[in-house]
Design goal:
three-stranded parallel sheet; about 40% helix; mainly alpha; about 375 residues; di-copper center containing domain from catechol oxidase; globular; 12 helices; two-stranded antiparallel ribbon
């Protein structure tokens, strides 16, 4: 399992022997474009749930009128030594436009490195270490979408991905995030997609099909997980719809962040900018189960985690110490509710994940980060 490699890396305090060194002089898209896997019809991908902004606004206004804002405030506990150490020197995630060219290339190569690693064998259908993570998301899909666990589980998933890149592929830079509010409705013109070195093209659909990505670091990539709960090899394809990406707007994010209740905030962000970002990029990214097959998934979810962090910052003493809502089975979330990550990382209680600057130790790694704004 991947966690065995992570434990070894943490114990040694350095990269393990299997780490592939990053070579920024190397070409970042070595795959052949011959014999591309097929592009599947868009209707093959089970898409995300999303709610138009006007409908979300109407729901919000009704909730504000009918909801009594009562939050149980816990007595603040003394700052732990771990939290103090983290706050003094947190890992900072930098927005893509503040990320240097060298850092961007290192990030692309680290993802490619993980795609070149063999699978653990624990996830049927996975053909690489990278696809272990895709298959994990696919298996957990019924439990991590359309309920209040969504935001917290994906926070842990994103952080896990970062630690795997560091432990197994020598990624030693800051981690990036993408502020989609700056480019809502105009994703396809951004250098994430237009540069030959980064995530590859973002074309519109052709005749009801996504278009195979043939540029960038992931040109010619074959996806073996999905669509949905199946495993049918298909190319990494996209099908942009900028009328959907336009919903990843500052106005929609602000609407969600204006909720004082976590469960309401979570539903708003999941059904709003989250769903619209996935379906706006389209094709593989719109696949609710196997969307991590498209590496842009991590950038989109860094945006979603950023909105969560900013929401928490508005009332830190409460929003990093309390949670509400229910899981997929209808059970109420508590601070002791476990968040599972297969065998890639251990199951941890929600309480460990709420404060990203808590400095807690998870599997030998310090859980400690914030965003650059």
């Amino acid at each position: 399992m991947r966690s065995s490699c992570l434990l070894l890396a943490a114990a040694a305090g350095a990269a393990v022997a299997s780490v592939i060194p990053l070579d920024l002089e190397a070409e970042v898209f070595p795959r052949s474009l011959d014999n591309l896997a097929p592009s599947l019809p868009l209707n093959a991908f089970p898409t995300m749930q999303h709610v138009p902004f006007d409908d979300a606004k109407a729901k919000h206004d009704s909730w504000e009128l009918n909801h009594t804002h009562t939050v149980t405030r816990r007595q603040s506990s003394p700052t732990s030594a771990e939290e103090a150490a983290c706050s003094a020197n947190p890992n900072v995630r930098f927005e893509w436009n503040d990320f240097s060219d060298s850092d961007r290339l290192a990030f692309m190569q680290a993802i490619q490195c993980l795609q070149s690693k063999p699978p653990t064998g624990e996830f049927p259908g996975a053909t690489s270490g990278y696809e272990d993570l895709v298959a994990l998301h696919q298996q957990y899909t019924p439990y991590i979408h359309n309920n209040a666990k969504f935001t917290i589980w994906h926070r842990y998933f994103l952080w896990t991905f970062e630690q795997v890149l560091r432990a197994e592929c020598g990624f030693d830079r800051a981690f990036p995030w993408w502020d989609e509010t700056l480019v809502a409705g105009n994703f396809h013109n951004q250098d994430l997609f237009t540069s030959p070195d980064y995530f590859g093209e973002l074309p519109a659909a052709v005749n009801g099909n996504g278009v195979c990505v043939t540029t960038g670091a992931f040109a010619g990539l074959t996806c073996h997980i999905g669509p949905g709960s199946g495993d049918t090899p298909h190319c990494l394809s996209r099908a942009v719809d900028e009328s959907l990406t336009a919903q990843c707007s500052a106005s929609y994010v602000s609407l969600c962040q204006s909720y004082s209740d976590y469960a309401q905030y979570e539903q708003c962000i999941e059904d709003g900018p989250h769903g619209y970002g996935h379906d706006g990029i389209g094709a593989v990214m719109s696949d609710v189960a196997a969307s991590p097959s498209d590496p842009i998934f991590w950038m989109h979810h860094s945006f979603i985690d950023h909105t969560y962090r900013i929401w928490q910052n508005a009332d830190v003493s409460v929003r990093t110490t309390t949670v509400d809502g229910v899981d997929a089975e209808g059970d109420e979330l508590t601070l002791d509710t476990l968040v599972y990550m297969g065998n890639i990382m251990p199951a941890v209680p929600i309480s460990m994940l709420l404060n990203t600057e808590g400095g807690v130790n998870i599997n030998g790694f310090t859980y400690c980060y914030r965003y650059n704004y």
